[in-house]
Each structure stands twice: as structure tokens, then as C-alpha cells.
Design brief:
two-stranded parallel sheet; 70% helix; 2 strands; 3% strand
């Protein structure tokens, strides 16, 4: 097969996108992660609702954010401004899930196409696409994680200013949108830690794979030693 550096760049981008969107999707789709915070943070005692009522409020909110038609928060009331913020959140969540699905489909399509046209990735500076995907993505988020760790409150505000530009509907009034009581900042901090941990773990696996795979490929491509037939001695 002929080698192609453009193919390497495409693969690096796809792999980085799968790891990024997959890591973000984890706390969105894994509801037990939130449920563990109900008792862990003592939410029932804090706000005077049962665990069942808190779960229902969270589930109805998340059902809407991942594609449902109607916004609801269980027995908790909500304002039009609060609902408009969750409509914005819904757009971001669906964007992430669609990008995750699209990147997986693109990876499968690129794998099939590269086999059909007889092309494989060419090393860039001696390394393959998984190395560059892991190193590039991991390096960026180590830096972001370090900055966020210095002042999470400030990072939280900057995040909302970046992803909800020109809007202040994310500043909830607990009197009209008590849903904020079941979504404490500790939960969002732990979501950020989960995303960062999964992302860095995925990046490490990509880098390790880049170092391991060439050895495996080399070993499988080495020719088997030929057995020499014994020479007959002439009389």
C-alpha cells in the first residue's frame, strides 16, 4: 500500500474528535453519575426533596436536553428564562452527540475507503495519527485543566460566556428556578473532572497504541525463516 500524509491528518482529526465528544457525552448519558451525587452531596437534606423527586426533576430536564420535545423539571417550577437556557443547553448537547456519531461514521468510512484505494497513513516526524491525536488533544486539555484548577469559579463563568455569548439566562434566580438547587457547582466540577479524566485516558491509550502497533505490524510482516535442506555429501 502507498503511504499518504493527508490520510494521517484526517485520521488524527477523527480520532481526536471521537475522544473529545465521547468524553463530553459520558456525563450527559450516564445518569447514575448524577444519582450518586444526590446522597454524596446530601441534596435531599439541603433542599427538602426526596431522592425520587430529585431524580424525576433531573430525568425530565435531561430527557429534554437530549432530544425531548417538552421541558419539565418534575415538581419544581421553572421560568421562561430558565427554560430558554435549557433550550440552549439542549442545542449544545445534541451537537456533541451528533458530532460523536458523525466522527465514528467518518472513521468507518475512511477505513473502508483507504483499503479500497490501497492507501495507508504515512508517519509524520516518525509518528502515526493516533500519537498526534492523543498528544495534541491531551496537551490542550492539560493546559485548560490546569488553568481551571487555579480558579474553577472563574473558569465556570468564562465557559458560559463563551458558549452562551450575549446571554445571562444561565444566571438562575432560585426563587423562580429552584432546579438550580439540585445542580450545585460541585456537580459541575465533578463533571469537568470526569470529562478531563476520560479525555486524558483516551489520549494516553492513543499514544501507547502508536508505540505498540508498529512493533506488532513489523513482527507480523517479517518473513519466516527458510529451512535449508541438508546437502548430500559426494562420494
Amino acid at each position: 500500500m502507498k503511504q499518504n500524509k493527508i490520510l494521517t491528518l484526517f485520521w488524527a482529526a477523527i480520532l481526536a474528535l471521537v475522544v473529545l465528544t465521547g468524553s463530553i457525552a459520558a456525563p450527559i448519558l450516564c445518569r447514575p453519575f448524577y444519582y450518586a451525587h444526590i446522597s454524596g452531596l446530601g441534596l435531599s437534606e439541603r433542599i427538602g426533596l426526596s431522592e425520587t423527586e430529585i431524580r424525576r426533576a433531573y430525568d425530565e430536564m435531561m430527557d429534554y436536553c437530549v432530544g425531548g420535545d417538552t421541558f419539565a423539571t418534575g415538581i419544581l417550577p421553572h421560568s421562561a428564562q430558565g427554560a430558554s437556557h435549557f433550550a440552549d443547553v439542549r442545542g449544545l448537547f445534541l451537537l456533541d452527540l451528533r458530532l460523536l456519531a458523525a466522527s465514528i461514521v467518518a472513521g468507518v468510512a475512511l477505513f473502508v475507503l483507504s483499503r479500497l484505494i490501497g492507501r495507508r497513513c504515512a508517519p509524520i516526524l516518525g509518528r502515526g495519527p493516533s500519537f498526534w491525536a492523543g498528544a495534541g488533544l491531551g496537551g490542550c486539555f492539560i493546559l485548560l485543566g490546569a488553568l481551571a484548577a487555579l480558579d474553577f469559579n472563574r473558569a465556570f463563568v468564562i465557559f458560559h460566556q463563551l458558549f452562551f455569548p450575549g446571554k445571562d439566562n444561565w444566571l438562575f434566580d432560585p426563587a423562580t428556578d429552584p432546579i438550580i438547587f439540585i445542580l450545585p457547582q460541585e456537580f459541575f466540577r465533578n463533571c469537568a473532572l470526569l470529562i478531563l479524566g476520560l479525555l486524558l485516558g483516551g489520549c494516553i491509550l492513543l499514544i501507547v497504541w502508536d508505540f505498540v502497533r508498529p512493533k506488532a505490524r513489523l513482527g507480523s510482516s517479517l518473513p519466516l525463516p527458510q529451512r535449508k535442506s541438508p546437502r548430500r555429501k559426494s562420494r
